[in-house]
Specification:
With about 300 residues, this protein is of the alpha+beta class. Helices cover about 30% and strands about 25% of the residues. A 4-stranded antiparallel sheet has the order 4-3-6-9. It is globular.
Length: about 300
Amino acid sequence: MSNSFFPRIRMVSALVVTLLLAAGCGGGGGTSSDVVGSGGTGSISGVATKGPITNATITGYGISGGQMGSQIGSAITDATGHFTMPIGTYAGPVMMKVSGGTYKDEATGSSMGMASGDVMTAVMPSVVAGANINGIQVTPVTAMAQTMAQSMTGGMTEANIAAANAAMGNYFMVSDILHVQPMNPLTTGSGTGASQDARNYGMTLAAMSQYAKTLNMSASSAMVTAMMNDASDGMMDGMRGGSQISMSMGGMMGSGMMAANSGTSGMATAMTAFVNSSANVSGLMVTDMAGLMQKLSSTNGKI
């Protein structure tokens, strides 16, 4: 046996160990080897708001062929809902999904957890590799736009994402749902210096909370899920396609069907109730929200 035999054995053994370690790192454990685009300096920063969501997981996904693709990054929100999510070298359209965490519900003032199975989403038409993007909002309204884009012909293409985001903004009279930060009506005097965009955005979220309270929902995130389903076909009529939407209620109500006017005059009524309630400390009155309330009361639900 030659003297070169044993060095060869050691080299082969080292190679096998290296391959086994590499395989173990890529086995679904959430390490960077699972993430598309890792290793670069790109990032997305922003706020997750259903009331600011604390300690929620936000996960970013690439979009391929109009559908959600591989994970590109993840982060945890802080006490004010803020996050910074590294996305490496990824370039292209992005979908973000928020799950878990707790938030202060606007209508009840209670601390609520996102119910199991409820999520909030947002879609961005495109990001440039290595860019650091700031000020992105993830809200019930961006989530409604995401489900709408996903249901459009071709799915979540860049054109469909842009169209759905714009349409959902027009519906609630918010110029840019991805970048306008919603006013928080639970913060004293927050409406005084806020733009009408921010007022409309914040009161839209509060109205969803108020509607959930009216229906005795144990978690208002269930109302967000119902609104996402309603928006998916581009028509706010309590239906997803041809089927009426089932909603999870609280207390003795069990489950029920979403009313046809939930996303139209029902939202206007809920908004009026919230603005007139003691929970609203923003300083805004019904007259400040008259434009949006009137639009919601008179619309046929077409987004």
